[in-house]
Design goal:
Number of helices: 19
Strand content: 15-25%
Shape: elongated
Strand order of the largest sheet: 9-8-7-10-12-11
Distance between the termini: 22 Å
Structural class: alpha/beta
Largest sheet: 6 strands, mixed
Helix content: 40-55%
Number of strands: 15
């Protein structure tokens, strides 16, 4: 092998109470979903919602999402019936939903109804015309069914979730205890943000289910619009930099402070959506009582819902639920890559760098490799900034805030290197430790080197290797492509090595054994 001297230039430098365990999908019997579109109509006590999903990929991406505040369960506590004007409003909304489903050529549709229709004595006065409008049955979820759907919706995106889950709707609250994704306890209480209820009544109801406290959960996953409102208020009041509600973690003391304020005679409605202003005092009271009784350390706001559970149970098999973030990134690779099959070679090239990154980074490195060509078609002066912001705002629930920032940092440096004069999201400077930021920057610079050196093509990328030994970052290059290494590529390699705290070295190899390397 021949060595190339790199010292020629300067270096530029995230029962009942107890229900049976949520059933696992059977991959042997359950086929992968067909291509097409699937819709869920969620008929809740406060709102009716239609979400249409695309089934062409492993991750069910929302194509259309519409919500109407019909307040179907308004006054239910007093009358035990659905009000005629609320029924009329809800049916009118369903006519629009039916027209949309037809126009969008939806292949499968799952209409579900929860507490309001379930509890109302005159529920059939809504259900029967609703089924005529939709041309299909409306499934009225039992308390147990609703709790199971909520838990499946959460674990679809967080398979190993441990803690309490609470889904607070207009007419009920489902509380579930999860340990590593398995249901241990569950209960549904007929109290929601549309209810006429006192704090003492909530406290008494919770006390009847001592497992809520005795489970010893450290965190509460809050599902539903009321919890998202608490998250929105927290972001507005604290200046939290990442305006993404799903995955937002709020300390117990901060949640309680916000709840007390929202229950006060003169609350601050900063960050509270106008549509929630009237019901948030009751919601805040219920959330405060639950936080205090359960003694959880923090609230994690969840963007999941009972609708995710419907998709998980009816449409996806276990393989498709394995790692949605990886599945999403692979779909991004397929749709944004300039040249096919580059990401496998790039992952192989990046793998040695996982040894100098903090534990757990290898999965994110592979995700970053899949996303490496994201926004390559944008203007070169803005490309890194746009790619970073795209990841920060990725419309999925399978990525944490810290993972979003890590990936954004990596993609920013993949496009912009270490140039100091480029636009950069402020969100990149927070939420992660200096070491995590440094790791992401190193991976970004490594992707930048490999993709520019190879011109984004898979064949030359298969003919380069990285190795770390004796404080050196060694780049091995097949002699057949040595002409691809010029002064600018050497400079990028020096930047990469310096950022990793290593010294660069290049070795020319006569021939790589691609079969042995798995490429």
């Amino acid at each position: 092998s021949n060595e190339i001297n790199l010292n020629r230039g300067q270096m530029d430098l995230p029962v009942s109470d107890k229900l049976p365990v949520v059933p696992k999908a059977n991959t042997a019997k359950k086929p992968a979903p067909k291509n097409g579109r699937v819709a869920v109509i969620d008929i809740g006590s406060n709102s009716l919602r239609l979400v249409v999903y695309d089934k062409n990929g492993a991750y069910p991406s929302p194509l259309f999402d519409e919500r109407a505040n019909c307040r179907l369960g308004e006054g239910l506590d007093k009358t035990e019936e659905l009000a005629p004007d609320r029924i009329k409003y809800a049916l009118q909304t369903l006519r629009r939903f039916a027209a949309i489903i037809s126009e969008m050529k939806v292949e499968s549709c799952y209409p579900i109804a929860t507490a309001a229709v379930r509890r109302a004595k005159n529920g059939s006065e809504f259900r029967d015309p609703a089924e005529n409008i939709l041309g299909m049955p409306v499934q009225i979820l039992s308390k147990a069914d609703e709790a199971n759907h909520v838990s499946r919706g959460l674990t679809l995106n967080l398979p190993e979730a441990t803690g309490l889950v609470a889904d607070l709707g207009g007419g009920s609250i489902e509380i579930i205890a999860l340990r590593r994704g398995e249901v241990c306890h569950s209960v549904s209480l007929n109290y929601g943000h549309l209810s006429s209820v006192t704090a003492s009544e909530i406290g008494s109801a919770l006390a009847e289910h001592s497992w809520i406290r005795d489970f010893g959960a450290k965190q509460l996953f809050g599902v539903g619009g009321s919890f998202r409102t608490i998250g929105s208020a927290f972001i507005s009041r604290t200046g939290y930099p990442l305006h993404v509600l799903h995955g937002l973690k709020i300390k117990r003391k901060d949640v309680l402070a916000i709840c007390r304020d929202l229950r006060s005679d003169e609350p601050s409605l900063e960050g509270v959506p106008l549509s929630r202003a009237a019901t948030i005092p009751v919601a805040a009271m219920i959330i405060q009582e639950l936080i205090e009784f359960s003694k959880v350390y923090r609230l994690t706001v969840s963007g999941t819902s009972v609708r995710d559970g419907v998709i998980a149970i009816n449409e996806l098999n276990a393989n498709q639920q394995a790692d949605f973030l990886m599945a999403v990134s692979e779909e991004i690779a397929d749709s944004t890559g300039r040249v096919a099959n580059v990401s496998p070679a790039l992952k192989k090239f990046l793998k040695p760098l996982s040894k100098i990154c903090l534990a757990g980074s290898e999965r994110l490195i592979n995700v970053a490799a899949n996303m490496s060509d994201l926004c390559w078609h944008e203007h070169s002066d803005l490309r890194g900034d746009i790619a970073a912001r795209h990841v920060l705002s990725l419309p999925v629930n399978c990525v944490t805030h810290k993972e979003r920032v890590w990936l954004a940092v990596a993609l920013y440096h993949r496009h912009f290197g270490l140039k100091p004069n480029k636009a950069r999201p402020q969100d990149l400077d927070v939420l992660l430790s200096k070491k995590r930021i440094s790791d992401a920057m190193v991976i970004g610079l490594a992707m930048r080197f490999a993709l520019i050196f190879s011109a984004g093509a898979s064949t030359p990328m298969k003919l380069i290797r990285l190795k770390i030994k004796d404080s050196k970052l060694i780049l091995k290059i097949d002699k057949s492509i040595e002409n691809l290494m010029d002064h600018h590529c050497e400079r990028r390699l020096k930047q990469l090595a310096a950022s990793a705290g290593l010294s660069p070295k290049i070795i020319l190899k006569k021939k790589f054994n691609l079969m042995k390397s798995g490429l």
